[in-house]
Specification:
mainly alpha, MYO5B protein, coiled coil
Length: 149
C-alpha cells in the first residue's frame, strides 16, 4: 500500500511536470512568434522613408494603446461587478446585524435586570483603590483561591 501511494504520487508529479513543460513550450513558441513579427515589422520599417517610418510607428503605438485600453476596460468591468457583489453582501450583513441587535433589544426584563446588576457590580469594582490589602490570617486560603480564579 505504501509503495502504491508513493508510485501514485510520483505519477501525479510526473504528469504535473509534463503539463508545466508543455505550457512552457507553448509560451516559448508564442514569444518566438511575437519576436518574429516584431523583427519583420522592424525590417519593413527600415525600408520605408523617414515619414513613413514615423507614421508606421504611430500606427503601432495607437494599436498598442487601443489594446491596453480594452484590457483596462475589461478590468474595470470586473472590478465594478465585484464592487456590486460586495455591496450586496454588505447590505445582507448589515441587515443581519440589525436583526441581531433588534433581537437583543427584546430580551426579557429579567435578563436586563441581571445585566443591570452586573453593571452595578462592575461599577463598584472599578473604584480606584490604592494601598495595602488588609485581611485576617484565617481568610488567607480563601483570598488566595479568589485571587487565582
Amino acid at each position: 500500500p505504501f509503495l502504491r501511494l508513493l508510485e501514485a504520487q510520483l505519477q501525479e508529479q510526473r504528469r504535473e511536470h509534463e503539463e508545466e513543460v508543455e505550457a512552457l513550450k507553448n509560451e516559448v513558441d508564442a514569444v518566438k512568434e511575437e519576436m518574429e513579427k516584431q523583427q519583420q515589422a522592424f525590417l519593413h520599417t527600415l525600408q520605408l522613408s523617414p515619414e513613413a517610418q514615423v507614421e508606421f510607428g504611430l500606427q503601432q503605438e495607437i494599436t498598442r494603446l487601443t489594446n491596453e485600453n480594452l484590457d483596462l476596460k475589461e478590468l474595470l468591468e470586473k472590478l465594478e461587478k465585484n464592487e456590486k457583489k460586495l455591496k450586496k453582501q454588505l447590505k445582507i450583513y448589515m441587515k443581519k446585524v440589525q436583526d441581531f441587535e433588534a433581537s437583543q433589544a427584546t430580551v426579557p426584563a429579567e435578563r436586563s435586570r441581571q445585566e443591570r446588576n452586573m453593571q452595578v457590580a462592575v461599577q463598584r469594582k472599578e473604584k480606584d483603590f490604592q494601598g495595602m490589602l488588609e485581611y485576617y490570617k484565617e481568610d488567607e486560603p480563601l483570598l488566595i483561591r479568589n485571587l487565582i480564579t
